[in-house]
Amino acid sequence: MESIVLKFIEYLKNEKELSKNTIESYNRDLRQFKEYISDNKINDITGVNKTAIIKYLMHLQKIGKSTSTVSRNLASLRSFYQYLLNKGIINQDPTLNLQSPKPEKKLPDILTPKEVDILLRQPDITTSKGIRDKAMLELLYASGIRVSELIDLNLEDINLDLGYLVCSKNNSNERIIPIGKIALNILKTYIKDYRKKFIKDKNVKSLFVNYHGNKMTRQGFWKIVKSYAKKANINKKITPHTLRHSFATHLLQNGADLKSVQEMLGHSDISTTQVYAQITKNNIKEVYKKAHPRA
C-alpha cells in the first residue's frame, strides 16, 4: 500500500510537474486517508469502495474540517484513484460521480447597535473634519448605500426638508431612501456651516469633499473609516461596507420586511438580501441558547 502512494507522488512530481506545496498537500491528504481506513479495518487502499470514501468525507466534516478542506481531500483522492485506474491497478474509480460539498456562504461582518454607536461617536465634532466625517458615517449607516454611492452623491441628491436622498439616479435603478433624524441633523449642520470650508471651487457639486476641495475618493474614505475603527477599539474587521451590512441586519432584526430592505439596498435579486436574514436567524439561535434554561 505504501509503495503505491509513493509511486503516485513520484508521478505527480516527475510527470505532472506539480509544485512542491501541491505535492505535499496530496501526500498529506492520502496519508490521512490511509490512517482513517486502517483504523476502520481496511488494509488495502486499492480495495476501497465509494461508501468508504463518503464515510471519510463525513468524518472530516464531523471533526470540524472546513468545506474547502473536505473538497481538497476529495480532489486528492479523485486524482489518486484516477491514476490507479489508468495504471490498471483497479477496475473502477470509487470517487466517480462524487460531488464536492457546496462552498459555505461566508456571512458578512456586522456591528452590534452598541458598536455602531461607539464608532459613530469617534469623530471630533468640534472640528470641520469631524463634522464632515460624522456626517458621512451617519449617512452611510442611516441609508445603507454603497461607499461608491456615498461619495458620488451631489448636493441636489439630498432633500433636507423631507429627509431623503436620491441614489443611482443615472441608471434605471433609482432609489429614494429615507434618512433618519440623527443623520439628517448632522448632515444639515455639515451642509449649511462646514462644507463651504472645504470648497475651493463653487462649481463643485459633490456632497462630500476632501481638503483639496475635490470629491472624496473611495481610498480617502476608507482611510477615514480605518482610523475611527482603530480609535473605537472594536475587536472586529471594520470596513466602509460593514456599516451597510449592519444597516440591513439591524432593520431586519427590528421587524423590517425583506422586500423593503432589498429595495433600499438596491439588490436586483432578493437572494442577495437573504444573507442578512440568515444572520438574524443565527442571532436568534444565540439568544435562545443563552436565555432558555433547557437550551
Task: Please provide a written account of the structure.
The protein has 295 residues and is mostly helical. The chain folds into two domains: 2-86, DNA polymerase, domain 1 (Orthogonal Bundle), CATH 1.10.150; 113-291, hpI Integrase, Chain A. The chain has helices spanning 2-14, 20-39, 50-62, 67-86, 113-120, 128-143, 147-152, 181-198, 218-232, 240-253, 258-265, 270-291, and strands at residues 158-159, 164-167, 175-178. It has a three-stranded antiparallel β-sheet, with no helix packed on it. A hairpin with a 7-residue loop joins strand 2 and strand 3 (175-178). Helix 3 runs antiparallel to helix 4 (67-86), helix 6 (128-143) packs across helix 10 and helix 10 (240-253) packs across helix 12. The longest helix has 22 residues, at 270-291. It is elongated, with a radius of gyration of 28 Å. The model has no long low-confidence stretch (mean pLDDT 86). Residues 1-85 form the Core-binding (CB) domain. Belongs to the 'phage' integrase family. XerC subfamily. InterPro entries: CB, DNA_brk_join_enz, Integrase-like_cat_sf, Integrase_catalytic, Integrase_recombinase_N, Integrase_SAM-like_N, Recomb_XerD, Tyrosine_recombinase_XerC/XerD. Keywords: Cell cycle, Cell division, Chromosome partition, Cytoplasm, DNA integration, DNA recombination, DNA-binding. One of its GO terms (biological process) is cell division.
